[in-house]
Amino acid sequence: MAKYKIDSDLEKEVQSYMKDVLSKLKSDNEKIDETYTAALTMLAENYNMFIKCREQIKNDGLTFKDRFGNVKTHPLLKVQNDSQIQAMKLFNEFGFTSKSDGKIGTTESNEEETPLTGFLQNKMKKEVR
Asked: What tens-digit pLDDT sequence spans the chain (129 residues)?
């Protein structure tokens, strides 16, 4: 079992955020296993990439002139956008957005079990090889 460790190479903002994420997961009594470790690493790396791109674009500007004098958008805008999309997907998975906040732990035990929910629950319990 791998334990998630916050990488010291990450931006300070990301390190601080990831500490908050770990605190929230621990307060929610979530067990941080290999699945969480990989997802948390991806979350931190994508958020870190977003911040680095944002800072570079802030320094360089949204556009630049190529060698022919044509105005082009900054190439890091695409990288920043892709990192933001991936980070938001992970924020949603962990329930860290107001929209997804209610998704985690909302299954009530008094709900009537349908054949579909029974199938899905048994399918998720089976060992994957």
From this structure: 457 889 999 999 999 999 998 888 888 767 777 778 888 999 999 999 999 999 999 999 999 999 999 999 999 999 999 999 999 998 888 777 777 655 544 444 445 555 555 555 554 454 444
Tokens coding 68: 């022919």
d(CA 31, CA 33): 6
Give the separation between CA 67 and CA 45, rounded to whole angstroms. 33
Q: Using the structure block, give the residue that is written with the tokens 């390190």.
A: 15
CA distances from residue 97 to 16, 61, 66, 86, 100 in whole angstroms, order as listed: 17, 29, 39, 14, 5
